[in-house]
Amino acid sequence: MFGAQAELLQEVSGIGESVAFDLKLISALAQRSLKNTLKERPVLGSWSSVIDYCNAAMAHETREQFRILFLDKRNKLIADEIQGIGTVDHTPVYPREVVKRALELSATAIILVHNHPSGDPTPSRADIDMTHMIISSAKPLGITVHDHIIIGKDGYVSFKGLKLI
Q: Taking the model in full, what pTM does it have?
């Protein structure tokens, strides 16, 4: 419901323009609150907060998003940026741009995150290959890729958890 566009919400009986606006507002406030929670403490010290935040931000999107959590040397969040929005099953990602932005922000580590609108968080071969390209581009510059998380409607997958990185 939070991921639905206001126009679609208004198609439900009893939901008018103001209720749809209120629902979108609540969704935005929840995302902001979860993001503030991440900024208050080390990201890796609270993995469940990272997953909760990513789920709230991306699980119900209808198009694939690729975002990056940029971290400082203490693993505190510097920035969370959407690097690309694609189609229902693909988002172009350019390792050069990922590393360039990490350098601009003086990030020493990153967490890659994207969603699968299909709901199935299983990584594709292209997901795995792209992740390895980013790791090999970032490592010589002192940037660590802590993980790549794929968010689905009913769960998530961690590349580190799957031993893919």
A: 0.73
